[in-house]
């Protein structure tokens, strides 16, 4: 009872308490991490969540997230079309142009036609399948700029000093272009399956169509996100935090892309704010969605960094050796034979 009264008093005086340690958090600094020896409970989950949120806020201090996302969106605007063209061309070489064209028909069937998305996708695929080797090599230059932008953006949330940032980002991002057929082809197969489900009535088919689209995008996005967070970024994250962070960010992005498809179904006049110039309005709308997607991507990076630091703190506390070991202070080192240990009473 006395302990509870003391906690309530400290809340009134100094703000939130750590639920396990009962210590007051200083203003402007994150709460101390919960001890790993504490068993999982609702209080432990809440403490871990608050710690990660405080760690993310601390990383955002003094940094303009919107401006960093806008800069990364600039690089993405240059790289997105060449990346899609290269992905289509490589997938055509791997599976055959006829297979890609046939699967694209399924994709155009499930896209809303209100804003002309099916015709844009069809033109993009046709242009990609018609690319020759020279065009493919030329597309690698603007494509590689996204790796540079990603490395520069992620470095803004790190204290690491980097050299040749642009070239490192470009070269480390290029290997992803080689595996794009392994990412695009499953998406085309999933789109074809969604088109088959679209013709079936009932709530089950609708739920299956949504689940197929959501989880296929989630799985496909996990691979480039993990590569970007682990290789393109200037830091080296531990595998547990990397896998968890990449899956979490991919899940958020996949849900966000479902919202983009919903946006495409709205009967909007995109050229109305721009004097009736619909292509200008469409370009601005795509840029806005790219900006929002990169806000999510950077938020996922911050959460992954915070999770990696939290897991590193747990390893430093010696959790693998047992729950009690993290709470037991280390024994003083032994002195010479017959001599008293530092901090111990002399022998009688």
Detailed description of the structure:
With 348 residues, this protein is mainly alpha-helical. The protein has one domain (64-316). 69% of the residues lie in helices and 0% in strands. The chain is built from 12 helices and no strands. It has helices at 2-14, 42-60, 65-95, 97-110, 117-129, 133-155, 165-173, 175-178, 180-198, 203-232, 239-264, 278-316. The longest helix is centred in the last third of the chain and has 39 residues, at 278-316. Residues 9-29 and 320-348 have low confidence and may be disordered.
Task: Give a short summary of the structure.
The chain is an all-alpha fold. The protein has twelve helices and no strands.
Write the layout of secondary structure elements.
Layout: H1 2-14, H2 42-60, H3 65-95, H4 97-110, H5 117-129, H6 133-155, H7 165-173, H8 175-178, H9 180-198, H10 203-232, H11 239-264, H12 278-316
Helix pairs in contact: 2-12, 3-4, 3-5, 3-6, 3-9, 3-12, 4-5, 4-9, 6-7, 7-10, 9-10, 10-11, 11-12
């Amino acid at each position: 009872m006395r302990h509870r009264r003391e906690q309530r008093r400290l809340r009134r005086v100094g703000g939130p308490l750590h639920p396990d340690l009962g210590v007051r958090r200083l203003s402007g600094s994150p709460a101390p991490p919960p001890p790993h020896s504490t068993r999982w409970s609702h209080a432990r989950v809440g403490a871990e969540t608050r710690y990660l949120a405080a760690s993310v806020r601390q990383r955002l201090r003094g940094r303009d997230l919107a401006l960093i996302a806008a800069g990364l969106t600039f690089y993405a605007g240059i790289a997105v079309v060449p990346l899609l063209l290269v992905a289509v061309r490589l997938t055509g070489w791997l599976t055959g142009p006829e297979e890609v064209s046939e699967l694209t028909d399924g994709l155009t069937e499930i896209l809303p036609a209100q804003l002309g998305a099916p015709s844009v996708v069809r033109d993009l695929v046709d242009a990609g399948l018609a690319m020759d080797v020279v065009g493919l090599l030329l597309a690698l230059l603007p494509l590689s700029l996204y790796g540079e932008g990603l490395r520069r953006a992620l470095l803004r949330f790190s204290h690491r000093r980097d050299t040749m940032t642009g070239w490192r980002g470009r070269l480390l991002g290029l290997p992803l272009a080689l595996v794009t057929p392994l990412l695009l082809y499953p998406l085309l197969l999933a789109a074809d399956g969604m088109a088959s489900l679209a013709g079936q009535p009932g709530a089950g088919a609708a739920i299956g169509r949504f689940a197929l689209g959501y989880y296929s995008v989630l799985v496909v996005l996990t691979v480039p996100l993990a590569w970007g967070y682990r290789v393109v970024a200037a830091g080296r994250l531990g595998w547990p935090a990397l896998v968890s962070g990449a899956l979490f960010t991919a899940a958020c992005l996949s849900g966000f892309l479902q919202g983009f498809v919903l946006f495409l179904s709205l009967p909007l006049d995109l050229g109305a704010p721009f004097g009736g110039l619909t292509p200008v309005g469409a370009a601005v709308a795509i840029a806005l969605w790219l900006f929002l997607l990169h806000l999510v991507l950077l938020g996922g990076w911050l959460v992954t960094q915070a999770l990696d630091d939290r897991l590193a703190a747990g390893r430093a506390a010696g959790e693998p050796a047992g729950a009690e070991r993290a709470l037991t202070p280390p024994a003083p080192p032994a002195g010479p034979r017959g001599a008293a240990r530092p901090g111990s009473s002399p022998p009688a």
